[in-house]
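Readers of this paper often ask what the protein records in our data store actually look like. Such a record has a labelled line for the sequence and another for the backbone structure tokens. The tokens are whole numbers drawn from a learned vocabulary of local backbone shapes. We quote a single record here, exactly as it is kept in our systems:
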Amino acid sequence: MEKEKALNIPNHVAIILDGNGRWAKKRGLPRSAGHVQGAKVVEDMCEIAWNKGIHYLTVYAFSTENWNRPDDEVKALMKLLRNYMTGAKKRANKNNMCVRVIGDKTYLEEDLQESIADLEKATAANTGLHFQIAINYGGRDEIRRAALKLAADVAEGRLDPAAIDESSIDERLDTAGLPDPDLLIRTCGEQRISNFLLWQLAYTEFYFCDVPWPDFNETELDRAIEAYNKRDRKYGGLKQEGSGEEQNA
């Protein structure tokens, strides 16, 4: 406990949940079994993250490219999402957790869209962990949709093109109002971001581990946080030697 107090805990952690299928295959199980176990780990990690002082947790659950997976796997993932939604509102309110789904929800079936809207509305005022689930999400698609909103506002006279700045884009992203991630974790050995939060990860620290997501636990999260604490976050600036202060490059 004393060790945790000495660490600088990231405010916002984003996670690419990789390795569910490989975890299942190694055990002679269908890929869907890996996704079920991975979902259980997500629920556990929400509580663990909050107890450690993390205030925002964003997970990559289903990308825009995941529709290209075999139909039976996509159907299993959508079934898993429905099952999660069944008890999500009760669990989130019990834990004072604010839940938000990012991504293009218009591609989801109507019952899922309604469940998501109900969950977001019911938990919007909660003041505990802010938990974001990326579903039918792609970073390029998010930026494309933000650009369409900007174009519409300009065309309708609500926005001067010369006034467009970074905040104008931030406000039109799915993550509007959220701080950028401090730490990105990707499991199961892959070292790429796979079209995840392309705009938001500009100054995020990356941590890659070989553990598949269904085996990820508090110990692994501690390792990621410890690695994060060894990074020198200068945001493009230079740290003045001996002063601990930063100056522009």
